[in-house]
Amino acid sequence: MASTSLFLPTTAGAAAAATARRYPFFSHRSHSHVPSTRLRRAPRLVAVSAATSPASSSLDALIFDCDGVILESENLHRQAYNDAFAHFGVRCPPASADPLCWDEAFYDELQNRIGGGKPKMRWYFGENGWPSSKIFETPPSTDSDKEKLVDIIQDWKTERYKEIIKSGTVEPRPGVLQLMDEVKGAGHKLAVCSAATKSSVIMCLENLIGLERFNGLDCFLAVQPGRKSKKKTPEPEVHSQEQHHSSCSPSSASHLQGDDVKLKKPDPTIYITAAEKLGVESKNCLVVEDSVIGLLAAKGAGMSCVITYTPSTASQDFTDAIATYPDLSNVRLEDLKLLLRKTLVTG
């Protein structure tokens, strides 16, 4: 199968910071290069003793990202994309002998620079040429056909990803369930805000944290960008989201009626909306993220953020996080309360 490789351009200083905050990262293209942000080794684990924490706390809500935080999902998404490329015979460039295949090193960089599956494909195809496929024998040339191609591939990929999650081979990251239960048990508000497709996030949460915890969330938001065309795609193997929605339990289905946001991280809208829905001030929310994209979104919403990094994000610049952890197995609620209180006091 055809594979891709990646050579990142280097930037520094203010220019890199500006690039990291620009969305959707398409302004300054360099052929076959993923738009870059400044990378540094993640800060060491911050250890905080809960013994010094007062009884009261300024923490009102803990907000989890999903992919990379609740589960390590990078390779699962990559597998689903490559399966979709093979299913539709996506060849990019069009003259390639084999279907497109994103290798692990390339996808690590791609998913850490560009949030959302459709923006990833739009950027990649824009840089390397729109592909030939079973959907369009010749590369699409109009905007509507390009959007149709991306929509069909993304729908199929989403269903494939859900099949992988439902297989029973995927588990939540260490410490996630324990911390969630601590938060709810202490009477604090708990939320999940994900930039992934809403139906796939619901599938992840139902299977990984369980229906009881999912239904107990005080807020659940995902990004559900609208399509330019309302026409249904002809691909018969793509299951609609409405078909998936009907499989939810009545209580979990109520989450589907909540407001979604249309802008991907690092845009802060999803976290600003969460604070509004939770009825709390942004400064009293603490976000758990795994990447610099999520960190930028949290900071843009006026929220403090802790990082639980993955192997693919460990080298990113997490200077603006108030703590970094390899996972949440040794993180307790009292630790997070103390961290946030110190952050608010020192300003």
Automatic annotation (TrEMBL):
Biased composition (Basic and acidic residues): 232-245
Start and end residues of each stretch annotated as Disordered: 228-261
Biased composition (Low complexity): 246-256
Signal sequence extent: none
Superkingdom per UniProt: Eukaryota
Cited Gene3D superfamilies: HAD superfamily/HAD-like (3.40.50.1000), Putative phosphatase, domain 2 (1.10.150.240)
Protein name as annotated: Haloacid dehalogenase-like hydrolase domain-containing protein
Organism: Urochloa decumbens
Source species taxonomy: Eukaryota, Viridiplantae, Streptophyta, Embryophyta, Tracheophyta
